[in-house]
Automatic annotation (TrEMBL):
It comes from the Bacteria. It holds the Pfam family HTH_5. InterPro entries: ArsR-like_HTH (IPR011991), HTH_ArsR_DNA-bd_dom (IPR001845), Metal_resp_trans_reg (IPR051011), WH-like_DNA-bd_sf (IPR036388), WH_DNA-bd_sf (IPR036390). Residues 4-97 form the HTH arsR-type domain. Keywords: DNA-binding, Transcription, Transcription regulation. This is ArsR family transcriptional regulator. SMART domains: HTH_ARSR. The keyword DNA-binding applies. The keyword DNA-binding applies. It comes from Geoalkalibacter subterraneus. One of its GO terms (molecular function) is DNA binding.
């Protein structure tokens, strides 16, 4: 197998591991259509702010999401095309059932 393809599989596998947690999957799915600030994310999930921040930090670290500061608020959006494709395919299958 070509080296480039192997790197692609490794990146996709890493993304799948990160998205394997229900909270992170919900965050990415929710950010697919538009950006959102941290407060709105933790209110929508019904989880403590600290918990959501830990998940956001991991998603940022893995370059799946990116934050944009607007005053004192930080708005997040999905920037990883592989994650968009994976989550999009997953929810397309769910909606077809």
């Amino acid at each position: 197998m070509e080296f480039d393809k192997m790197q692609t599989f490794e990146r996709e596998a890493e993304i799948l591991k990160v998205l394997g947690h229900p909270v992170r999957l919900k965050i990415v799915a929710g950010l697919m259509s538009n950006s959102c600030n941290v407060k709105k994310i933790w209110e929508c999930l019904g989880l403590p702010q600290a918990t959501v921040s830990q998940h956001l930090a991991l998603l940022k670290n893995k370059q799946i999401i990116q934050g944009r500061r607007d005053g004192v608020e930080v708005f997040y959006q999905v920037v990883c095309p592989e994650a968009r494709r994976i989550v999009g395919a997953l929810f397309e299958q769910i909606s077809c059932q």
